[in-house]
Amino acid sequence: MTFAEIVWQLAGGMGVSIQLFVITLLLSLPLGLVIALGRMSKNGLLSGFIKFYISIMRGTPLMLQLMVVYFGPYYIFGIKVTNDYRIWAALIGFVLNYAAYFAEIYRSGIQSMPVGQYEAAKLLGYSKGQTFFIIILPQVIKRILPSVTNEVITLVKDTSLAFTISVAEMFTTAKALASSQTSMMPFVAAGLFYYIFNFVVAWGMEFIEKKLDYYR
Amino acid sequence: MSLLKMDHIQKGFDGLDVIKDISVEVREGEILSIIGPSGSGKSTLLRCATLLETIDSGNLEYLGEEAAWTVEGKAVYASKNKLKELQSCFGLVFQNFNLFPHMSVLQNIMDAPVRVQKIDKEVAKKEAYELLKKMGLEDKASAYPYQLSGGQCQRVAIARALALHPKILFFDEPTSALDPELTQEVLKVIKSLSDLHIAMVIVTHEMAFAREISDKVIFMADGIIVEEGTPDEVFASNNERTRTFLGNYGNISMTNVL
Ligand SMILES: Nc1ncnc2c1ncn2[C@@H]1O[C@H](COP(=O)(O)OP(=O)(O)OP(=O)(O)O)[C@@H](O)[C@H]1O
Ligand SMILES: [Mg+2]
User: Fold this and answer.
1) Which CATH number does the domain housing residue B177 bear?
2) Per the confidence metrics, is the pTM higher than 0.90?
3) Cα distance from B49 to chain A (closest Cα, Å)?
């Protein structure tokens, strides 16, 4: 089997990995913001619950969380899950986990904003919502971008954890191919894929950072 | 007409009485300076007047309408909507400007008129340019705050406040973050506002400036008003506390002013 053929065989897995990555980001970034706001809420019950949820997400392995989401419905509720559920379980697990990490990043960014910005906005008559979305959030995004970049790069590699619940993503496919071909090549191809993927992601994040460089 | 009436205001921070019993009235077009030693409660008073802090007891009236009053020794505030409505009659210029760093100078000035007061964009823009001209900053419209000197930032902050057409403009030590040269340019701009007939309440350590610009001067110490009157009265006071604070300022000659 030539290297080109191996890459061709892995293409389907690559597509799944990219899908996992994109959908996880699109959902966990906004969800993280909502969670961060809940975490900072004056309602002690809500913020306490969210604090607990975040500590679980950060304090246990993502691999374990994926298994709980995938096997949980059957073991806990006796619901028979279909094969299609694998990819959904992976997405739910990734989104819940990454939203928790992003929430903490948002929170630290929001709390680092000087109170003077809120006071100036209040005196100018901005509503609470306007103050948050027009004055605070744009500045927070610039401040937290380096931490978000770190998480995003980790997510590229973490998509391979979907392997644990047999989602046919890149890594799963490569491992199957390696054992059927008794060859290292599929692993080399997989490594190359993740490396290039991250290279593109890092370039994209740098582009956004440059875009926000117009002020200090 | 009375624009602002503060009656027997009290305010403390966990056990520490900062404002003990202060009554102040500001009339249309009046320029009032508040002077006093550090820690005497000047900023706190201004923050109570601008609704950034809540008073513990007393009465607060804007344009003859009650914003806060006292029931059984505790302050009660009007509804949020009412406060928002009353709030539109005043503006505040901060010691450290608090410009929005992600907005250009022009955006800083016209965003609130457009977004909050729903003024037509072109109209707001035209007015923003006029204000910039008044501040001597026509060429800075597209600059960002980090590209400006402190004095320029403060002038933008003044323009931003003026763009909403306040009836009273509060200043909390508008020049104390600036070096002497920049201080003068900002004081000059504030002085030039007197022909707009906006009432101004200015907390300042610039005695010569206060003496020249004010209709009325209040000397505060330890949370009370020690003395108030025309600049000539206060600066020539025989009150011992006032004299100690003013020191040499009391004798400053008017030729040094601006
Ligand atoms: N948020 C707060 N919490 C607790 N204490 C406060 C708070 N704000 C002010 N104080 C205290 O109130 C007192 C008066 O402070 P304030 O800032 O009003 O003084 P000031 O007259 O403006 O002084 P300066 O000339 O230094 O600006 C000080 O003792 C200060 O420590
Ligand atoms: Mg002060």
Assistant:
1) 3.40.50.300
2) yes
3) 11
CATH number at residue A18: 1.10.3720.10
State the pLDDT at residue B248: 61
Q: Do residues B62 and B89 touch, judged by C-beta distance below 8 A?
A: yes
Strand B199-203 with B31-35, pairing: parallel
Structural domain for A194, as ranges: 3-212
**What is chain A's percent helix, strand, coil content, to nearest 5?**
85, 0, 15
Q: Tell me whether residue B183 is in a domain.
A: yes
Helices (H) and strands (E) in chain A, counts: 9, 0
Question: pLDDT higher for B114 or A177?
Answer: B114
Nearest CA to ligand 1 atom 24: B38
Taking each helix axis from N to C end, the angle separating A137-158 and A185-211, rounded to the nearest 10 degrees, works out to: 180
* Complex confidence, ipTM: 0.93
Domain count, chain B: 1
Task: For residues B89-93, give the mean pLDDT.
Answer: 96
Residue B73, domain extent: 2-89+166-251
The answer to whether residue B221 is domain-embedded is yes
Asked, for residue B63, whether it belongs to a domain, the answer is yes
Q: Is the CB of B39 inside a 6 Å radius of any atom of ligand 1? A: yes
For ligand 1, atom 22, name the residue with the nearest CA: B43
| B186-235 residue pLDDT tens | 999 999 998 888 999 999 999 999 999 999 999 999 999 999 999 999 99
Length of chain B: 258
Nearest-10 crossing angle of helices A3-39, A170-181: 150
Whether ligand 1 lies within 6 angstroms of the CB of B13 is answered as: yes
The confidence band for B257, taking pLDDT boundaries of 50, 70 and 90, is very low
First CA to last CA across chain A, in angstroms?
Answer: 54
Distance (Å) from CA A130 to ligand 2 centroid: 28
Number of separate domains in chain A: 1
Residue B101 falls inside a structural domain: no
Rounded CA-CA distance B189/B184 in Å is 9
CA distance B233 to B118: 45
Closest approach of A117 to chain B, Cα-based (Å): 6
